[in-house]
């Protein structure tokens, strides 16, 4: 497992869930890994776990809603390891989506603005700060965690969904504008991923409903997403850019009536 040997990777939202799994996996694949999160204690715990297992990792506190904090994250990476090769924009304002991202008719414009500031502007600033360092090293890989919510409507979380759609569009622009300089940019759209947080927020009946609509015999895990990130960050994906990869168990690959007909 050395597909990222010699690479320097920054993973945001890496104190738990998908980000933590990705940080562990990219480090196991040989990358010097910056574990970045608003929860610096959580990030430090993940970084310690990586180093205890023989990997190389540093924890950095970052507030994706604060431009200076995002830029400092990248500069800290460069100071520690000498550059940036991989940026996984994974962090998101899930606290807003869980409690305050109401239907459009009831939406609070402040929640909309905060969601866009963290989910989209934060990712853009991180890319902006990383680009010169990637180009100086001959190129790099940006992977943006979007969502199935960015591809289809839902009964809730319009701000979150719109922000994730914006990330897909940003992915295209970065791929288009910097591909000739060796920078690739792709997006991942996870389906329902079973994390510590989702186990508490989505009860058993909800998980059963989601599973009926997946084409796989199980729901997703953070490690499923981490595997996709490692592939897209590696040289094996050297000819892949500007793409959106669904890591969703086929959730959006079928007609909406398939689950009902299967039970009928």
UniProtKB/TrEMBL annotation:
Keywords: Oxidoreductase. InterPro entries: NAD(P)-bd_dom_sf (IPR036291), SDR_fam (IPR002347). Gene3D superfamilies: NAD(P)-binding Rossmann-like Domain. Its EC number is 1.1.1.-. It comes from Actinomadura rugatobispora. GO terms for molecular function: oxidoreductase activity. SUPFAM superfamilies: NAD(P)-binding Rossmann-fold domains. It comes from the Bacteria. PANTHER family: DEHYDROGENASES, SHORT CHAIN, SHORT-CHAIN TYPE DEHYDROGENASE_REDUCTASE BLR2146-RELATED. Pfam families: adh_short_C2. NCBIfam families: PRK07231.1 (NF005559). This is SDR family NAD(P)-dependent oxidoreductase. It is an enzyme of class 1 (oxidoreductase). Belongs to the short-chain dehydrogenases/reductases (SDR) family.
